[in-house]
Structure formats: C-alpha cells, structure tokens
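FAQ

Q: What does a record look like?
A: Structure on top, sequence underneath. For example:
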C-alpha cells in the first residue's frame, strides 16, 4: 500500500502543498477481476447493480464508468483526513461510494467519524464507519467532508462513478494539456510562465486516443471498465 494522495494544489513558487498535512491514510488500488481479492470484485459488481438501478433517478447524468476500488487504511494514532472535496476540478467523478470494513467500531472509543457538510442545508451528516455499511454521496463541491482522527486501524473501500459528459470533457482538457506540454518541451523558454497541473486525473492512452480521433476505442462506456484516478476518499 502507498500513502494516500490529494489533488495537488500548486503554490505560487510552483511547489506543491504537502499531502501529509491533509490525509494520513495508506491506500491500494484493486480491480474487480483480480483473483487475489475475490471479495472486492463481488462488492464492486454489487455496487454496479445498485448504480444501474438508480440511473433513472439521475436524469441529467449518464453513469457509464467507474474507478478501481481504492482500499484505504487509517492506521490509528490520530490518522485523519481534513475537510475536502473529492472532485473539485470536474474530473468526471459524480458519485462517491464507500464500503466500510470495521467490526465492532465505536466512534466514542475509536474515533474515525465521517462528517459530511452538504452545501444545500445546514445539517451535518455524522456517519460511523461500521462493518457492512455502504454510503453514496455526490463527489463534487456539494459535499465537503472529513474523517476525524482514528485511534484504531480503520478500513474503507471506495469507488467513484463517472458522469459520461463531464468525464469526456476532462479527457478533452487532458489532451489539450498534453499537447501544450509537448509544445512547451520544444520551446523551454516559454515554459517558465506556465505551470501544467498534471494532477487533475489519470487517463489511459486509449481514452486519449479516442478523444483525439486517433482511435475508435470506446473507453469508459461500460460500468465494468475501470480507470484509476489520483484522488480523495474517506
């Protein structure tokens, strides 16, 4: 497992704010067909089924694709994730789905409460990360949230579902960014005035080809497809 990462924020001196100040979980990405983790695959397919059932409720969105599962462990000792938004930069993520794996969890003793601050009302949702609980919420700025300090190891499996239109637009921006970066690499003198932020999301080469017209690939068209993003989870 590796240290969790946030969407990087560029400082005026072109530096990057330290991730450790914001989150202290460790993570691993797992696909739904990896034989070493059959339970993860089963869980993801069950959530796929839920998404297919609720899709008609989201008339203005088209849910087509999702990320791999991000298995996260807060190792205790006050590990936490400060208040944040999963998708602040319109990378395509629409819904955050978190499944908890913490048997006999008691927030009064163990901490680790998830708090969600919906922007459309003043009520704060306080969610205990108890075993076999699945929560689903908007990934964008509608739902800032945080994980309070955990005093025992705390486990969660998170996957994000994409809105097809926003994901396509994110891919288009990424193609433009890569093109601009290639142009700057051929003209180093101009690169000093531009900071290319490559932390928006990770997009596969087939997706880039599809957007740029060099391939007929239909990447991201099915819920069973997976893409890993550099991202935030709780």
């Amino acid at each position: 497992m590796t240290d969790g990462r946030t969407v990087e924020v560029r400082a005026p001196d072109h530096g990057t704010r330290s991730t450790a100040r914001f989150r202290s979980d460790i993570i691993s990405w797992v696909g739904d067909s990896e034989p070493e983790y059959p339970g993860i695959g089963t869980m993801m397919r069950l959530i796929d089924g839920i998404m297919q059932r609720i899709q008609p409720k989201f008339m203005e969105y088209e849910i087509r694709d999702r990320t791999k599962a991000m298995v996260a462990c807060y190792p205790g000792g006050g590990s936490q994730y400060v208040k944040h938004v999963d998708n602040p930069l319109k990378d395509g993520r629409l819904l955050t789905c978190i499944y908890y794996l913490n048997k006999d969890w008691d927030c009064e003793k163990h901490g680790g409460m998830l708090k969600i601050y919906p922007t459309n009302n003043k009520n704060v949702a306080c969610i205990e990360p108890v075993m076999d609980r699945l929560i689903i919420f908007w990934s964008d700025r509608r739902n800032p949230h945080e994980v309070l300090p955990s005093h025992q190891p705390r486990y969660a499996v998170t996957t994000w579902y994409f809105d097809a239109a926003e994901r396509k637009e994110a891919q288009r921006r990424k193609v433009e960014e890569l093109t601009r970066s290639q142009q700057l690499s051929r003209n180093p003198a101009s690169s000093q005035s531009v900071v290319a932020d490559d932390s928006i999301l990770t997009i596969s080469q087939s997706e880039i080809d599809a957007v740029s017209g060099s391939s007929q690939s239909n990447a991201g068209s099915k819920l069973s497809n997976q893409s890993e993003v550099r991202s935030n989870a709780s």
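Q: Is there anything notable about this one?
A: The CA atoms of residues 7 and 211 lie 23 Å apart.
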